[in-house]
Amino acid sequence: FPVVPEEEREDVQLAKKYLESFYDFKEEKSSLLKSKGLDQMAAKIREMQSFFGLEVTGQLNRKTLDMMKQPRCGIPDVRSYS
Amino acid sequence: TFPHSPRWRKEDVTYRILNFTPDMLQADVEEAIAKAFQLWSSVTPLRFTRVYSGHADIMISFASGFHGDFYSFDGPGGTLAHAYPPGNDIGGDAHFDEDENWTKFTTYSGYNLFLVAAHELGHSLGLGHSNVFGALMYPIYMAKDTRDYRLPQDDIDGIQALYGPPRESPALPTKASPPQQPTEVTPAEEPTEVSPPEAPTEPTPSKAPERPEDCDPRLTFDAITTLRGEILFFKGSFVWRKSPYFSAIEHDTISSFWPALAGGFDAGYEVDKKDRVLFFKDGQYWAVSGYNIEPGFPQPIQNLGFPSSIRRIDAAVHDQNTKRTYFFVGNKYWSFNENTQAMERGYPRKIAADFQGIGHSVDAALQRNGHFYFFHGPNQYEVDIKSKKLISKMRSNSWFNC
Q1: Cβ contact (<8 Å) for B85 and A21?
Q2: What's the whole-number mean pLDDT along residues B199-219?
């Protein structure tokens, strides 16, 4: 079924937080660079999908979101704590 | 690994448990963490010693939400724990989210502390995440049966790339004498021991070590103890069990009795009046009663009165008549009074000075029917307990009806 808008917004927030925590994603705050931020986020989603052996689409599909909701270690997957 | 591959530049690493989760018995937390360390020490030269005060290399704590570093925890689920790569101060420390439900079981109602601690301690030793599904260092928690848990190959390759393989290779028949002991000059009549080949420097492919044949004439043992009338012979992770009730020798693994001690022992002895067996590995010892490890263990062997220069012992044997326990280290031995729980004055003494005919180190020791049996390489020496005179010399595996 299509994802209802509210749930979709929550999933995007969850994904942003996940990618910031574990894939060194930095969200673009300025609206001018919004499109750049979306490209960056898609690139980080691809990096995460590749790490977990998921289909690399750059899109927040169900499998990718399910993987982001799994209990896990707090260490980043792609770089250490500074 | 982490960028620049930080690692501990020493083999003796200390840890301290700063606090405990109310979800589990303190003894179960201690056992889970000791078992997690054992997993890594069994495939590297690293030795882990628990300290109870001051600073340790790896400080372990439970906390929730913001807890003083830049990575706050997030309530139940999500992030379970995190740990820092080797380094000063916070380096090496491991933090567990108290908002999770911690358990020693592998049910789905909580997170198994041993599994999560083993993963986090991998980070404390310098490992990053693995994307090999099923590897211990895979970032996502997966409940597994922990009774006979073995480190997956990917994790062994990773940790051995940082620290190399363990000092002695379990498959070799002789027990490497402790490096800090003076080399023993074996008396002329002793067969010259074939010194084990140099351990390979590149990571050892982790083939599961095979149990030596019962009647292999070169068979040697790491430790031997009695236990409730039976005799247990230890080598690596293997146990030979000789029972007065059955003629056949039973073959087991240590993990089938004490999963937390699966890595093997240097020594063991029974104080039968207390139904208690003490096992020694490197600088620590555990007390067990049957299958149960007593709470508060492991403890440093210095708690028994050994000087800090002693990092491990070779063998131990208890004489229930005199209530004395003899500890053997290199060519010397100590006498411990089980009544006063203290080392006796005037020790250590030379083994050769008191035990006629035992002119070398002792790998393992056993007392039975009024005799001591001292094991050295593939031979054992039967000694009368009272006179301390040598009675006979036999093959180490003469107990196996060969």
Answers
A1: no
A2: 67
| Amino acid at position B142, single letter | M
Looking at beta carbons, which residues of chain B come within 8 Å of A72? 78-80, 139-141
Helix (H) or strand (E) holding B367: strand B364-368
Residue with tokens 């062997």: B301
What is the ipTM for the molecules in this complex?
Answer: 0.86
C-alpha span between B119 and B132 (Å, rounded): 14
- Any alpha helices (H) in B102-179, and if so which ranges? 113-124, 153-163
Contact B113, B149 (CB under 8 A): no
Interface residue B80 vs chain A (CB under 8 A): yes
Q: Residue B167: pLDDT above 70?
A: yes
CB-based contact B85 A81, cutoff 8 Å: yes
Report percent pLDDT > 90 for chain B. Answer: 63
Label residue B160 left, alpha or beta by phi (over 0 means left) and psi (-120 to 50 means alpha). alpha
Strands (E), A1-82: 72-73
Q: Any CB–CB contact under 8 A between B72 and chain A?
A: no
Residue B338 a catalytic site member:
no
pLDDT of residue A30: 62
Contact: B79, A21; criterion CB under 8 Å:
yes
**Closest of B390, B380, B330, B393 to residue B219, by C-alpha:** B380
C-alpha–C-alpha distance, residues B115 and B104, integer Å: 9
- Asked if B79's CB is within 8 angstroms of A73's CB, the reply is yes
In angstroms, the Cα distances linking B173 to B135, B211, B222 are: 31, 11, 10
Which position has the higher pLDDT, B186 or B227? B227
pLDDT given at position B201: 39
Q: For residue range B58-98, what is the model confidence (pLDDT) as tens digits? A: 999 999 999 999 899 999 999 999 999 999 999 999 999 99
Are B233 and B214 in contact, with CB atoms under 8 Å apart? no
CA distance, residue B51 to nearest chain A CA (Å):
26
